[in-house]
Design a protein that fits this description.
Helices cover about 35% and strands about 20% of the residues. It has about 250 residues and is α/β, with parallel strands linked by helices.
Length: about 250
């Protein structure tokens, strides 16, 4: 109930009240409003995103020219969520039934996948991050061991999110191993050959601790950041890799 004291025509105080039901009906009918959950403001794509994209491409091209970097050593990486037990949004049911049930639809557990690809079109082995405080949550069956043998990194974090520890593991066990192997294939000196690593501006990537660790332990990995709010247009992992990868896992 909304109440307010107003002044009448003769100067006397008049109590004005409106019920909650009347208020709801009024705003729906006359204002076109409806009760909605509050959401955060979506990131807006800046008007000069194409210019910023060109400048990012020029930086990559300049580094490749300066250090003789092959397309196989220009890498983009990004994290994506993967449901542990994927479920479809559609299923078969008797015609006319209104309540459609699906086994496991409430399953929300996830792992994080670190996907990467090169500018030449090659896809990296994955890093998969499972949720748990100990390595006991990391799969150790035959297929998992075979994946590790092929270069995958299976690890864990308390909430399955990527953090400083998992990022350093990725650089050590996946990214730099790729650089070394490709140097062998291309007849390059892996002790001197640099690579370009394009990543987004997520806080885990931009922390001074991680940047200093990269410079000290992996100076041959030259990292660049995708400009903030531009990943939907300028990050290959988002545009051409992550989307088909995600669509391969029903939700």
């Amino acid at each position: 109930m909304f109440q307010r004291i107003v002044t009448g025509k003769r100067g006397e105080d008049v109590k004005f009240s409106v019920s909650k039901t009347f208020g709801k009906a009024f705003v729906r009918k006359h204002l076109g409003w409806t009760w909605r959950w509050v959401t955060t403001v979506a990131s807006k794509l800046p008007e000069d995103w194409e210019k910023q994209g060109d400048e990012t491409a020029y930086r990559v091209a300049a580094l490749c020219k300066l250090h003789n970097i092959s397309p196989e050593l220009v890498v983009n990486s990004n994290q994506t969520a993967i449901y542990v037990r994927p479920t479809a949004k559609q299923t078969y049911e008797t015609k006319g039934v209104k309540a459609i049930q699906s086994l496991g639809k409430d399953e929300k557990r996830q792992i994080t996948g670190m996907v990467s690809s090169t500018s030449s079109g090659s896809m990296f082995p994955l890093q998969l991050i499972f949720q748990g405080k100990t390595t006991a949550v990391v799969p150790n069956h035959v297929e998992a061991r075979e994946a590790v043998r092929k270069g995958w990194d299976l690890t864990n974090s308390e909430n399955h999110w990527s953090n400083q520890t998992t990022m350093k593991r990725f650089v050590e066990k996946v990214l730099d191993q790729w650089r070394v192997e490709k140097c062998k294939e291309l007849g390059l000196d892996s002790s001197k050959q640099k690579m370009v690593w394009l990543i987004d501006c997520w806080k885990v990537h931009t922390l001074e601790e991680f940047r200093n660790w990269l410079k000290e332990n992996h100076p041959l990995v030259h990292y660049l950041y995708v400009v903030v709010n531009y990943t939907s247009k300028l990050q290959p992992a988002d545009v051409v890799l992550q989307r088909p990868f995600k669509h391969g896992f029903p939700k």
